[in-house]
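Standup notes
- DV: blocked on the single-chain target, sequence here:
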Amino acid sequence: MESINWKTLTSEQRNQIVAEKVLDWKQQECEGEIGCSPISPDGWFCQRCGQSGYWGDDTTHQEIVKGYSTDIGAAWLIVEKFRRTHNVLIGADPNQYDVAIYGRHGQSIESGATKASTAAEAICLAALRAVGCEVEV
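- DV (later): unblocked, structure below
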């Protein structure tokens, strides 16, 4: 079982690990539609991953991993993946979020249960544990 020291990772590293371990994501060239940057008329913006640059530069780029550990919209994609085949329980109190992911109908998986200060982070931690990663927080 792989061990991950969560608190020593940057948010980008956390997002990369979640994408790779939980969603089987692999770094690849992004095929998103390129449009005008909403911030600068001199720039381009990828509608799929959010990468940006300036017109005249090559618009070919590597897909950027979503902010799973900080963005509840991105983290919810993980919930949607698991809920097709597992039970996903999310609870909250004033100080923390509790997330548990476990098998249904007699399926046996490593219980992904955890607590964190944000829902996105709790979802990520529970998902990593559910796929067999040992996570130190």
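- Follow-up: Residues 11-23 form the longest helix (13 residues).
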